[in-house]
Every structure is written in structure tokens, then in C-alpha cells.
Design goal:
With 131 residues, the protein is of the alpha+beta class. It has two helices and seven strands, in the order ββββαβββα.
Amino acid sequence: MKDKNLLDDNEGKTVAMNNEGFLRGNVALVGFEVLDPSERDIVQKMVENYVKKMNINGNFKEIRLSLRQHKHGKTFKHEIDALAIFSQGRFEAESTEWNLYIALSQVCDRILSEIDHNVKKEQRHDKKVMQ
């Protein structure tokens, strides 16, 4: 997944650029520039924590999170789409919630759940092959 918002740094790692700067670790946040700086900081911390978990559970390569907001009166409904690429394959998830952080958690939890399921499935397959 090559995105115009992704750049290669001098270490060969992909770096995502947003209005505030760069996020390390092959993470692209698209559409999050509409958030307040304090909200973006929280989102960045949450994503960093989930990426650490993804590195533990699978061979994580990159993730792209896209945010769309739908205005309903004075409030917004947040729609987040995620595409995560692991050595085991591509995993997608989406969530729409009134609370941004709940939507982000749901999307990342679904990705973690899918990779965990995939890893366990591969282990069962490897076990059968060995017998």
C-alpha cells in the first residue's frame, strides 16, 4: 500500500505525514487533521499502543486509518476505516460511532482479533502438517 502521504526516511522505514508532522512506524492517518491538536495527540498515543500490540501478535508491516465525520446537528458521527498489512496478509475493519475513541478502539481491536485468529489458524495447520 503506497500512499502519497507516506515517505521513506533514511532508515528505510515508512513515515506518515500529517499536518502536525510525522508518525513513525508505518502508520498513515488520513482525515485526522480536522481534529483538535489535543484529540490528535490522544489518537496518536492510542494508535502507537495498538501498533505495539500488533507487532507482538503478528509480523506487522503497515496500517492506514481513515477518518470521515458525518455531521448530525451539533455533533459528529465518526467513521473510521482501517487497512493493516501483515506478513500473514491484509486485514480490514471499520466502525462508526459517536465517540471517536470508541470507534478507533473497535477498529484496532478487530484488526488484532483477525490477526490473532489467523496466527492460531496457521499454528493449527503447521501442527497437522508435522504429524
